[in-house]
């Protein structure tokens, strides 16, 4: 690795280009920026319009730009490779551009390294010396569930990995980092307040155990629903807890901050007394309990095979090749008692424990089983031929249609697979083309039935695109 001691290194940027002289970088050039208020940051130049001029912005990331009107001068970061200089042990200052009388120079020091477990603060924008000797900049984004992080420098989360960076030093505080500092300060203050929280005696007159309040609400619910249980009530998510907030205990719902897993407490605000909260709990859990009647949920009894057989027979009518063993390769089902209540449960074939399959009626459980049987059947039926109709740009409620493929299956049946996505994510879905579609005497009548399964408004292609397609017509046997 480089021999220069990064702790003592100073980088001097000389020969800045002055924006007011209409001296602008090339399109896309990544630059160190000195703002009119004296702050330093960086960004990639994006001019406005085709004509040369100073109008435009410097892009730092997604929804993160600096308008050129804020910039005093700039210095390219793209043009340098410091490898040879950094391999010289005795160097402690590197001049970027000739230093001469009257030129603007800005010096950066205080470099740190990931090798010594030094990390920037979240959202801090930093100047980087990369391991390949080049210069860069970016906004620090820690990977919360794994080691390291990334310096974001362009839209769509384009970033320099911490593994690529030899040394870094912070640039000036900007609004994004200022908000992060404020948030960190608020968390510290909240932690201090909550060391010895107080409890309102009217609000917590039945004590500090949340189960006591749930049980009192349960007593009231049983006047109307004799099957009500605490387990049913707590299926209504998120559950209520007693938690400290701003130095006081509150009834609250707790969620996790996606960035750092810290608790976010949303307090109950619909009343001021314990009995008002108990009445609120009755209303909050009412619908869940009402639709959890065991007599309705297990109206076909408590033998899981009865439900499996019913779903199997329903699916077998169209999926003629279906065998019971196909589902067993993926899911196993049972009816078990969980926390005192009977529940439908399932586990994946390689899992050791069942988990609750939370449905509120026998009919809904059978519908879910049917879907699982259908998916298992399609996985087992190999494809033997395919046809992908051509299409132009199709937008589906913010997603773009990426793939639309018809498949002939080993059994002689057909399915269609549709894939759509946006800038950052996407998904695919398979649809079985049921035999009744092929009972149609004409191709047009077939499409009328098919488009009830894969409607144009949801999946992109309709009669206008599919009816004139002679190749598809032939592929489907018409």
Written description of the protein model:
The chain has helices at residues 83-86, 175-193, 210-221, 230-233, 274-290, 294-297, 304-316, 324-328, 362-380, 443-453, 456-459, 463-466, 470-475, and strands at residues 10-13, 17-18, 30-35, 40-47, 56-61, 64-67, 71-76, 93-96, 106-108, 125-130, 135-142, 149-154, 158-161, 165-170, 241-245, 248-256, 263-267, 331-338, 341-348, 355-356, 383-387, 395-396, 399-409, 414-421, 426-433. It is an alpha+beta fold and 478 residues long. The protein folds into four domains: 6-175, no CATH class; 210-225 and 238-291, no CATH class; 296-380, no CATH class; 383-475, no CATH class. The strands form six sheets. A six-stranded antiparallel sheet has the order 2-7-3-4-5-6, with no helix packed on it. Strands 13-12-11-10-14 form a five-stranded antiparallel sheet, with no helix packed on it. The radius of gyration is 32 Å and the shape is flat. The model has no long low-confidence stretch (mean pLDDT 92).
